[in-house]
């Protein structure tokens, strides 16, 4: 996806073919929101490439038809939604498209939202309260947020979330059925200095995808 230098709302989209080892330009320029892809990277699902904005509105590029489509967020009052919620994570897991909607008032509370294949809107799949984890990990803090690394639904009665808790720098597997948790490991961010002022680096993680494509 390329930006138009004269207008950030205009994008040019190209598709790479591993069969021909070449790029194909799709139609003319597309009009999309200026914030598209600035917060979270695009996600491939359902033969389309998807982006989400800060109020859970979804925009996707249908690769077969080469068209841009939009699905509105779950709330009409955008200002109130933005004040009360944060879209924390967005990704494809097990063939489903999910996003994490965190409560700004209670950072340990969040919803797992799922998009259906007909694109009728986001549906609440799970409501999660991580407050009980503080009993096991007294120093656990959700103030700096967390990210969904993995989501497994191999057993319908016992789906599991793997979360990276930023401030505490721990990775935890949380069973939604039994509400039990296992600490997988601890990560460490590298502090750095900018003009003598100490900063802490944000965490970045990426899903491993085995591919023979040479891009």
Tell me what you see in this structure.
This protein is mainly beta and 215 residues long. 5% of the residues lie in helices and 50% in strands. Strands 4-5-6-7 form a four-stranded antiparallel β-sheet, with no helix packed on it. The protein is globular and about 55 Å long. The model has no long low-confidence stretch (mean pLDDT 77).
Please mark out the parts with pLDDT under 50 across 5 or more consecutive residues, or reply none: none
Characterize the main sheet: 4 strands, antiparallel
Radius of gyration: 19 Å
SS class: mainly beta
Protein name: F-box associated domain-containing protein
Organism: Papaver somniferum (Opium poppy)
Compact summary:
The chain has 215 residues and is mainly β. It has helices at 78-84, 133-136; strands at 2-4, 7-17, 22-31, 43-45, 48-52, 58-62, 67-71, 85-93, 96-103, 109-115, 122-129, 146-152, 160-165, 170-175, 180-186, 191-194, 197-200.
Main attributes?
At3g26010-like, 2 helices, 215 residues, 17 strands, globular, four-stranded antiparallel beta sheet, F-box associated domain-containing protein, mainly beta
Ordered list of secondary-structure elements with their pairings:
Elements: E1 2-4, E2 7-17, E3 22-31, E4 43-45, E5 48-52, E6 58-62, E7 67-71, H1 78-84, E8 85-93, E9 96-103, E10 109-115, E11 122-129, H2 133-136, E12 146-152, E13 160-165, E14 170-175, E15 180-186, E16 191-194, E17 197-200
